[in-house]
Each structure stands twice: as structure tokens, then as C-alpha cells.
Write a structure and sequence with these properties.
By secondary structure, the protein is α+β, with helices and mostly antiparallel strands. The chain contains eight helices and 16 strands. The radius of gyration is 24 Å and the shape is globular. The protein starts with a helix and ends in a 10-residue tail after the last strand. The protein binds flavin mononucleotide (FMN). Flavin mononucleotide binds next to strand 7, strand 9, helix 6 and helix 7.
């Protein structure tokens, strides 16, 4: 019974899951031959009420119980948000600079200052970090959004993103990679640790020099894909 209603391909399954439960149930009802449709008794259908799953799989135990429950896994960036977006600058052994956008980023320690971010090994930034264990964290303001997106959609392997985005490389004081002149906060860092976790590598850096032009500005808060948040306002909490 269940197999008759089952979508024919993974693509069809994902399309079905992306529909509201009522439409998905209707889609199931409409599939199969006329006789199958006429004789089919609908199974109870439940699904997680979240938007756009990106991967879904049938659970054997529940299928045995004839319950069409589909556990759905969501991109972690759609679960943990918003995240501060930064521009990380690096350079290769010959000193050729690169700049890329990162939002899997976090502070680790007040004193001394440590920061961490997560980089996929396909990134040119990753190769640069392996070659020259230094980087600069540059915090862009919201008005730099288009430039930041260029840094997050093109690779330094193919283009000079400083030129393409119209950003100004400024020599750093203690590390080889340059800073981004347009960013009000720039932290020069030395890599202390790089370790693989799943599909990304965690990079921990010790801040060796800091440049702060402004303390209050509108940062870019990343959601997922091409969507960002703007800071809505400041709330001082009193207990
Ligand atoms: C807002 C934003 C945030 C991003 N965050 C990350 C991230 O945390 N880790 C990562 O590996 N890639 C991230 N990316 C993707 C890289 O910026 C993108 O692949 C870029 O082209 C890499 O450049 P590179 O090859 O010059 O290093 C992000 C992209 C955008 C637009």
C-alpha cells in the first residue's frame, strides 16, 4: 500500500516534502493508476512543519509500522542564526592576497583574544591558510553587502576579489595578509589550530594586532544562502 504511494525518485520525494502537508497528501492521493487511486486507503501522514528540507529519508522502523513519518534534516545554517558575517583575508606563499566571506565565525577568548571560524577545504582561503598560517578578520558594515557577496560567491583562485569588489587592501602590522580598508574592525591573527570536522575545518586564531575605527555600526547578519538579517535594535536587559 505504502509503496504504491511512494514517490518514484528522490527528486519527487523532496518536491513532495517541500509542499504543505495537505498538498503533499493530495499528491500522494493522485499518484498511481485510476484503480490504485480508487482502492487506496490513505495512510496517516505527518511531517515536520518546517520550511524547505534539503534532505529526507524514510525511516525503516516507522515504515514497518505503516506510518509515513519522514524525519527531515535541515541545513545547520537554517537552525543556528543569525551569524556575524566577516571578511577573512589571507595570502599565498608569494604574498598574493585573497578575501572571502565567512559566517561560521565566533569569538573564543577575551584575554588573550582568540577567534575561530570554519572553512570548507575547497576554498582558496583554505589553501592559503595551509600555506601561510595567518589571516585577518575584517568586520564589514551593512552598506558593504554587495561587495561582501562578491567575496562570498567568487573564488580567489579565479579572480582578484579586491579588484572585482572594489575593496582596498591595507598592509597589516604583524601578519602577511592585508586588511580590508573599508571595514571598521580588523583583527590580525596567527593560526593556532586547524582541524577537520565533517565537511569543514575549524580554524582557531590568536589575535596579534587589532585595528578599531568604529565601535557602533550595522553588521551583516547571515541567515543561509543569499538571505541576511539587519540588526533590528538594541535591548538592554535588566534583572
Ligand atoms: C555570507 C556568506 C557566508 C559564508 N560563510 C562561509 C563559511 O563560514 N565557511 C565557508 O567555508 N564558506 C563560507 N561562504 C562561502 C565562501 O565565502 C565562498 O565559497 C567563497 O567563494 C570562498 O572564496 P575563496 O575560494 O576565495 O576562499 C560564505 C559565503 C557567504 C556569501
Amino acid at each position: 500500500m505504502l509503496l504504491v504511494a511512494w514517490p518514484k525518485s528522490l527528486k519527487a520525494l523532496i518536491t513532495m516534502l517541500n509542499q504543505p502537508a495537505s498538498r503533499a497528501a493530495a499528491a500522494m492521493k493522485e499518484s498511481g493508476t485510476a484503480t490504485e487511486r480508487a482502492t487506496r486507503k490513505m495512510q496517516p501522514f505527518t511531517r515536520t512543519p518546517y520550511p524547505t528540507p534539503y534532505f529526507a529519508f524514510p525511516c525503516k522502523k516507522l515504515l514497518k509500522e505503516k506510518r509515513v513519518v519522514l524525519p527531515v534534516s535541515h541545513r545547520i545554517s537554517r537552525l543556528l542564526y543569525p551569524r556575524l558575517t566577516v571578511l577573512i583575508t589571507t595570502c599565498d606563499g608569494s604574498g598574493k592576497p585573497n578575501v572571502a566571506a565567512f559566517s561560521f565565525f565566533m569569538p573564543i577568548s577575551f584575554d588573550p583574544k582568540y577567534v575561530a571560524f570554519s572553512v570548507a577545504p575547497q576554498r582558496h582561503t583554505f589553501s592559503n591558510l595551509r600555506e601561510v598560517g595567518e589571516f585577518v578578520v575584517n568586520v564589514p558594515t551593512f552598506d558593504l553587502l554587495q561587495k561582501v557577496w562578491i567575496c562570498g560567491r567568487y573564488s580567489g583562485r579565479d579572480v582578484d576579489k579586491f579588484k572585482l569588489a572594489g575593496l582596498t587592501p591595507v598592509p597589516s602590522v604583524k601578519v602577511k595578509p592585508p586588511r580590508v580598508g573599508e571595514c571598521p574592525v580588523q583583527l590580525e591573527c596567527v593560526v593556532e589550530l586547524m582541524r577537520e570536522f565533517g565537511d569543514h575545518w575549524l580554524v582557531v586564531g590568536r589575535v596579534v594586532a587589532e585595528h578599531v575605527e568604529m565601535l557602533e555600526f550595522d553588521p551583516i547578519l547571515h541567515y543561509s544562502g543569499d538571505r541576511v538579517f539587519k540588526v533590528g535594535g538594541i535591548v538592554d536587559v535588566k534583572l
